[in-house]
Amino acid sequence: MTGFGKSTFEWKSKKIIIEIKSLNSKILDINSKIANGYRAREIEIRSEVGKTLERGKIDISVSIEYKGDTSPYTINRNLVKKYYNELKNLSAELNEKEENLFSLILKMPDVLVAERDELDEDEWKLFRKGLLTALSQTEEFRTQEGNMLMHDFVNRIYLILSYLNAIETFEKERIVNLKERFRKSFAELKEEIKIDENRFEQELIYYIEKIDITEEKIRLKNHCDYFIITLQEAVSQGKKLSFITQEIGREINTIGSKANEVNIQKLVVQMKDELEKIKEQLGNIL
Fold first, then answer.
1. What domain count does the chain have?
2. Do 77 and 41 fall into the same domain?
3. The pTM is what?
4. Which pairs with CB-CB distance under 8 Å and at least 24 residues apart come from 271-277?
5. Range of the structural domain that residue 66 is part of
6. What is the pLDDT along the chain (286 residues), one digit of tens a residue?
């Protein structure tokens, strides 16, 4: 499921921004970019995100904006002086001009030192509250998308059931046409070879029973009803729904293989089309 959540809060001289983005994924994949000061709590942050969102490619960003002249960095003065003296002596020794020494020094290792800002419990409580707010927004976003998918699933299942009902129109005619075709063939064969009429009738009954699709239609309707019932359960049932679609597909394929009637086969193709669209979207839910 896709989703987005954002939360901001202020603590002393800084503003903390928490952003969470969620994309579709079959597993839980958390990518975090957390500012200094909160990295010590990264395991707890990731645990809270995973517990709420359960699955998806999750990007969580925690950034800090400092107010006024406050900064998380200080200049290592002693190191700057040392760099400066060494560069100045080297310039004199090599007969080079002393230009832009400070801009060069500021790029050298360990000149800017990040201040260790210990995270106290009051700040952590405020941060956790902001994190839960961002997670709630993300989950709400995903829930809205889930409701849209649910309506789409229900509509497509009802379409499959409507195509199933439409088969009734052609099924009786299918059997009548089959019998008529066999009788015509039987009449033509009688003129050429001797045929046992009783045996022929038995074979005809056996064949008609073999291509009967009554059981498949009943099972298909039951699977569709079960899909809708499962879809409305409070607990996530993504895998279960996937299994049910497999059973729906099996019954549709069997009806198609037994049909022997062009109109029924057209309805089977339409049912397959709707089922494939359901399967495509099932990968996006838990």
1. 3
2. no
3. 0.66
4. 271/160, 271/163, 271/164, 274/156, 274/157, 274/159, 274/160, 274/163, 275/156, 275/160, 275/245, 275/248, 275/249, 277/156
5. 3-70+125-141
6. 688 999 999 888 788 999 999 988 778 899 999 987 788 889 999 999 999 888 889 999 999 887 766 666 677 778 878 888 888 888 877 777 766 777 777 777 777 666 656 677 888 999 999 999 999 999 999 888 888 889 999 999 999 999 999 998 888 777 777 767 766 766 666 666 666 666 666 666 666 667 788 899 999 999 999 999 998 887 777 788 999 999 999 999 999 988 878 899 999 999 999 999 999 888 766 5
